[in-house]
Amino acid sequence: MGIFGIWIAAFLTLCIYSFLYRDNPFYRFAEHLFLGMSVGYGIVLNIHSGFIPLAWDPIYTAITEEGKQSGLVKLIPIALGLLFFARLSPRHTWLIRYPIAILIGFNSGLFIPSALQASIFEQTRGTVEPFANLGTLGPWGIFEAALMVIGVICTLTYFFFSVEHRGTVGWLSKIGIAFLMIGFGSAFGNTVMGRVALLIQRVNFLINDWLGTIF
Amino acid sequence: MFEKLMRIDRRIIFIFVGLAVIVPTLFPSNLPINVPEPTRQLYDYIDALPTGATIIIAFDYGPSSFAEPQPMAEAVMKHCFDKKVRVIGINLFAETTTLADKLMQKVAKEKGAVDGEDYVFLGYRPGALQVIIGMGTEIASIFDSDYAGNPLAEIPMMENITNYEQISLLLDLAASSTVEAWITYANTKYGLQIGAGVTGVIVSQMYPYLQTGQLVGLMPGFLGAAGYEKLIETSAEGTAGINTESFVHLLIVGLVVLGNIAFFIQQRREE
Predict the structure, then answer these.
(1) Tens of pLDDT along A11-70?
(2) Are residues B8 and B81 in the same domain?
(3) How far is CA A104 from the centre of its chain?
């Protein structure tokens, strides 16, 4: 990054951090600039990395070069995609149902079996598998395996609303809440860690890169 | 005193946090770093790859979250280039494209890696799901050229690479739910081995996948980056970051304890 770029980045960083004092025009300027730049950059990159290589080039080649007419098949998904713009005409809005139906069907068909395998079956296997190797586990390993099963059962009980949470079910769900709280605490701690990392990177940039151009 | 503490202006806390970052940045310290076990697992996996093996690094973060994944990417690429493991770079988010391209070029220059032979950056294609699934069938059907515009067929290191079958590992450097997407589609459907380097914000949701073996290893935030840097015997942004972060953590723990004490004392007085 040249000196000019470093100064712009430093100015915008300070504009954003000025919000910590209170809302102000510098902060709003930097925020709007960031949004505008992100959208503009995204559109240009999507045209260059998506529309041109995946749609325009194959069709152009199919029209201009002999023996490459198979590229014309891309006209089908392109036409379906263009139906999204039917939303702009009240008389033709109903046409949007077709691309949406195809997208939902495609995504559901792909997602449901894969997600069941990755998030349900594999996780269940991971929870009970340690008990299959109980003989090879030390006391700490057995404790970990048991704790995990207790945690899963109690947390699931908390989310089981078909039975009133009283008596044994009530106790199990209370233990489930404790496990959930530990989970939330861990997530909060990690979130703090992540946010502080962003601050460290910016301060590092301001001190070493920006002030480095002055002193 | 405790009443005052409960009503403290949040801007005073911001100043303390700012000082806890600025002072260690100006006067760096060398705190001991314990390598997390999941990071060691990822290192061991890559270290055991034979010369000429290929991995994919997915740069799935944005400019607003690159503080943690970027040092991880740097450390892993250095390790790969030293081991003569080839690297393919891609990204599922448009905003990362230039960041990732520049980073690959910077590390490659440092390690003497050659574009097209030791590494290639394919860049971005829209539609994350289609990219993940499409590459499993044929990488060239999604990326017909690299980011610089060179046709894939003319890139030497891509000569014998058709799909995930020739890929030893996919390392997802992520700031959102892309790791789950890679596991759900690439690992479950194609059996591709997945590793992850994630920001602190999402690290908790990664551990279940680690425990089941759906992730071969994990780099959690700055700690993961610093751990990997220690394993490859270098000290860079990850190490500097975790050293500074330790001071902020001490401050935050102190503030949480102090806030709780003040809260309970105030509650008792009200009773």
Answers:
(1) 999 999 999 999 999 999 999 999 999 999 989 988 998 889 888 888 898 888 887 788
(2) no
(3) 19
- Residue B188 tokens read as 């479950």
Question: Are residues B179 and B253 part of one domain?
Answer: no
> CB B68 to CB A204 under 8 A?
no
pLDDT tens, B61-83?
Answer: 988 899 999 999 999 999 999 99
Taking the CA of residue B28 and the nearest CA in chain A, the distance in Å comes to 11
pLDDT in tens, B23-39: 999 998 889 999 999 99
Residue A72: inside a domain: no
Using CA atoms, how far residue B223 sits from A170, B34, B195, B245, in Å, is: 39, 8, 16, 9
The total domain count for chain B is 2
The distance of A190 to chain B (nearest Cα, Å) reads: 5
Rounded Cα distance, B262 and B14, in Å: 19
Beta bridge partners, B219, equal B197
Give me the mean pLDDT over the B160-175 stretch.
Answer: 96
> What residues of A are in contact with residue B64 (Cβ under 8 Å)?
198
In a domain, A71, yes or no: no
Domain count, chain A: 3
Q: Beta strand B169-174 with B119-124: parallel, antiparallel or unpaired?
A: unpaired
Helix, strand or coil for residue B93?
A: coil
Residues of chain A with C-beta less than 8 angstroms from the C-beta of B25? 200, 203-204, 207-208
Closest residue in B to A20 (Cα) is B11
Residue percentage of chain B with pLDDT more than 90: 84
